[in-house]
Amino acid sequence: MFSHIMLGANDIDAAQAFYDATLGALGYPPGKRDDRGRLFYMTEKGILALTPPIDGKPATAGNGSTIGFAATSPELADAWHAAGLANGGTACEDAPGVREGGLGRLYLAYLRDPSGNKLCALHRMG
Which CDD domains match (predicted)? Predict the structure, then answer.
């Protein structure tokens, strides 16, 4: 459904340390910067990009917004969470674990990146 997601980042170096670690825990390669200093994580299915806002104002996190990353196991979701905490992220929501609801059993882990964007690693339980 999505071709790409672009998030604002106030510090591209901090963003790269965070996303290289968290996405690396899920098996993705490090990000690459373009000649404008934007950071890209490219996969066959889509692109995650981080950039300072083009209007020159500070990046802000969207209230009510969450970007979710698929994890193939609860252990990978935990590794993602730990990598984020070790690289400038902060915990938010409940501790990583199983949640049950109308969409079935999900293993969820939540973080905020160094710019405050809310993220989630999600594993659909069998």
Answer: VOC_like (cd07262)
The tally of domains found in the chain comes to 1
Q: In what order do the strands lie in the sheet with 4-8?
A: 4-8, 47-51, 39-42, 32-33
Q: Does 26 map to a domain?
A: yes
Measured in whole angstroms, the distance separating CA 98 from the mean position of its chain's CA atoms is 19
Residue 60 lies in a domain: no
Boundaries of domain holding 35: 4-53+65-124
Best CA proximity match to 15, nearest among 111, 125, 122: 111
Token pair in block for residue 81: 């969470």
- Rounded to 5°, the CA angle 52-6-48 comes to 115
Q: Which two tokens stand for residue 2?
A: 């999505």
Confirm whether 78 is domain-assigned. Answer: yes
Identify the CATH number of the domain in which residue 14 sits.
Answer: 3.10.180.10
